[in-house]
Design brief:
single chain; alpha/beta; four-stranded parallel beta sheet; two-stranded parallel sheet; 9 helices; 50% helix
Length: 165
């Protein structure tokens, strides 16, 4: 949201998982910023299963359906409200057109993390001691393990109960 505000967006689209949309966390945070911001949200429940289960051939059709809600809303930018959606950022951009900015965690989080670590060198020192990556999932399947290894490389993948890390 901070990045959307930095861009001066007043009409924001949110493409997210059902849980993200139902939580209304983006709406709550935007209401703290100002009343002049409009949020149009749409759940995209098929995207994560398609991404995790080699369903690339179905993503275009699903995206076409999901982004229809933004037609005629004069959206300045769309927030991709799921970490999985970074993988389809280009496809989302193609669907919404070049005049609508697509905001994705892979563009936002790395520079913010770098800034934070620069301000807190003691954390970076602790991180560099281990230099391993552990991914915690609530559901570990062959296909989502392959998906993670495709983007994260060699890492430890561990199943956890929802809400417990």
């Amino acid at each position: 949201l901070e990045v959307a505000m930095e861009h001066g967006f007043k009409n924001i689209g949110l493409l997210g998982t059902q849980a993200t949309i139902t939580s209304n966390i983006y709406g709550e945070e935007l209401s703290k910023i100002g009343d002049d911001i409009n949020l149009v949200s749409t759940p995209a429940p098929l995207l994560v299963p398609l991404l995790e289960n080699d369903g690339d051939q179905f993503i275009d059709a699903a995206l076409s359906e999901y982004v229809q809600v933004f037609d005629g809303c004069d959206i300045d930018g769309i927030i991709l409200g799921c970490t999985h959606y970074c993988a389809i950022k280009g496809q989302v951009q193609d669907k919404v057109g070049k005049d609508c900015h697509v905001l994705s965690q892979d563009d936002i989080i790395p520079p913010k993390l770098k800034n934070y670590l620069n301000r807190h060198p003691e954390i970076e020192t602790r991180i560099l001691k281990n230099r391993s990556l552990s991914v915690h999932l609530t559901d570990v399947t062959d296909s989502n393990e392959q998906y993670i290894r495709k983007y994260a490389g060699d890492c430890q993948i561990r199943k956890v109960e929802y809400g417990h890390a």
